[in-house]
C-alpha cells in the first residue's frame, strides 16, 4: 500500500534534474554576488599595498595619518609627528591622497 502511494507522489512531481539546475543557479549567484567582488577588492588592495614607498602619506586602519619613513618586506616604518613607529603593511587603509577607501 505505501509503495503505491510513493509511486503516485513521485509521478506527479517535477523531474529530478530541475533540482540540480536550481542548485547550480544558486551557486552561480553566490559566486557573482559574493566571492568575485571580494576577491577583486582584495587584489586591488594588495596591488595598492605593493606600490607603497617612502614619503607617501597614508591613513592607517586606526584612523591616524602618517608618512612612510621606510619600507621593509612586511613592515613599514611610519612617522607620527616626530616619532617613527613600526607598523604592518596591512595596517594601511588608504593613501591620504585618495578621498575615501571603497566600502562594499
UniProtKB/TrEMBL annotation:
The keyword Transmembrane helix applies. Keywords: Cell membrane, Membrane, Protein transport, Translocation, Transmembrane, Transmembrane helix, Transport. InterPro entries: Preprotein_translocase_YajC. It is found in: Cell membrane. The chain crosses the membrane at residues 16-35. One of its GO terms (biological process) is protein transport. The keyword Cell membrane applies. It holds the Pfam family YajC. One of its GO terms (cellular component) is plasma membrane. It is a single-pass membrane protein. PANTHER family: SEC TRANSLOCON ACCESSORY COMPLEX SUBUNIT YAJC. NCBIfam families: yajC (TIGR00739). Belongs to the YajC family. This is Sec translocon accessory complex subunit YajC. It comes from Candidatus Geothrix odensensis.
